[in-house]
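Regression check, 5-amino-5-deoxy-1-O-phosphono-D-mannitol case 602:
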Amino acid sequence: MCGIVGYIGTKEKKEILLDGLQELEYRGYDSAGIAVIENHHLEHFKAVGKLENLRNKTKSYNSNGFGVSIGHTRWATHGKPTELNAHPHLGEFSFVVHNGIIENYQELKKELQSQNVTFLSQTDTETIVHLFENYYKKTPNAFTAFTQTVSRLEGAYATLLITEAAPEAIFFAKNGSPMLIGFGEEEVYFASSDTPIIGKATEVYYLEDGEYGYTQNGTVFLFNADGAKKFTTKALATDKAMAQKDGYRFFMEKEIYEQAHVMNDTMMGRVLDNRVYFEELENNLFDNIRAIKICACGTSYHAALTGSYLLERIAKIPCHVEIASEFRYKEPLLHDDTLFITISQSGETADTLEALKMAKRAGLKSLSICNVDNSSIVRESDQAILTRAGIEKGVASTKAFATQSMVLWMLALYVAQLREAIDADTLQQELQAMRQTPKALLVNDKLHEKIHRLSKRYLHGHGFFFIGRDLFYPLALEGALKLKEISYRHAEGYPAGEMKHGPIALADSELFTIALMPKTLHYDKIKSNVEELSARDATILAISPEPFELADDFIQTHYDEHPMLEFFEMMVVTQLLALEVSIRLGNDVDMPRNLAKSVTVE
Ligand code: M6R
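Current build output:
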């Protein structure tokens, strides 16, 4: 969740770096920094908070003539947002910027400290620059030292390094975090996405995992595990708005595809070793807490419901969920042994904010789960967990829901650890499943094509019922909300076991039932609920790892070992279905009628 920019050439470097970082600021704005080497002179600046602060600090600085430069905007994961923890990180004669997480940094740090290396920051990144300088001191060849450094790194990284030992080069490496190289006239750019270099570079090469190298005199020397590698560049987009969509038709589509990637950010620094950590939470948050109440609206309410199943099942703590607009006026009875959690993508939803204020007035401790740091809800809460989904532009929420659900799953494990409500084996199984989530969220081309094809059958009819049980009931609610928001078709989410208590009266061939049929939770129960609907001639789209004979349409999912992996895989299917139906109906997917991204009025 950070942004990187690099430049090597003769132009004024400060402006290139700051303008580029401005484009990436949405990825992190805890602190920012730049470093430049020009005429063998190393200069660097860092500032906490928004980029504006760095701009002010560098007002009187200019860098003309040939030089190398790197910049970074940070979203704190290891260590607080302070100037010392801001990138670029400094060794004795080199600087480094980095996105991602060096998983073995503690081991590397210990090794370096035992050789009298002093660390200034709390970050994992600082190990890279010291490791490099340590190797360089033994073998004074900068590229050899950089190669040795990269070979020691475990985890996800996109990194740039500049050093007085080779003042005309930028060293780079990529594994698991995005990085590209842009080519202009006798100049080379680096960035973690293409918007910072659009209008500056004309050609681009998107680095692949495991690639590293350096650039010098306008040439890029690229390597991977097999040695030197040839590469071909392609033309860089010229339209920033299009580039922001990365070639997708709509932001919502891009955001659905991004989910696999952002989930790594959500887990980063939190799912470590054999436990879940929330560095941002004070240790005493759960002292004297006997119950949890969650308040939210819309999609965030559906995530809250998902969380209530997980918190009760895993952490064995009573958990009640309320729609914020209802909670506000019901004169709720609140006890100070209840932790009050609010969930909000924007952090500005008026009803949720007001519910939080009421809970605080009643003396409850509060925690928010939010995507926007410094938003009103985060500021109002005692403590906050950021979901790190990155900016979500589509009005219909997708990656925000995915990351909220993930944070709640992690929170359930965290509370279970505190309350000793989970045994070591079960915890390991949960963590193992959790680490597989990014894979379960990957959109497979074949699946997308299949949903595109079958969506044409789901344009009319008199309504949709999304049905599920247990964790898949909130997912059914969310699937229905997605469809109605962007297709304007009537859709309801229902607990499958409730259909026979009324709604089944609607069943006929024009009633579309989207049946969420996970293998790991009550498969036989949901199967018989769907059979009842099929017997009344409802049109059934079944989503399940198990083939289902009575389905008119069937989408086979793959994860069948853990309910949450099934949950996330099915979530993607429902999102794509809503997207494809909406596109076929010619609607504006990103800005559906009558809706707004942030609802700041009652
Ligand atoms: O920003 P919030 O999460 O507090 O917003 C709550 C709802 O307004 C929001 O989830 C809304 O339902 C979305 N349009 C759903 O796609």
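Comparison notes: The CA atoms of residues 107 and 127 lie 10 Å apart. The first strand starts at residue 3 and ends at 9. No diff flagged against the previous build.
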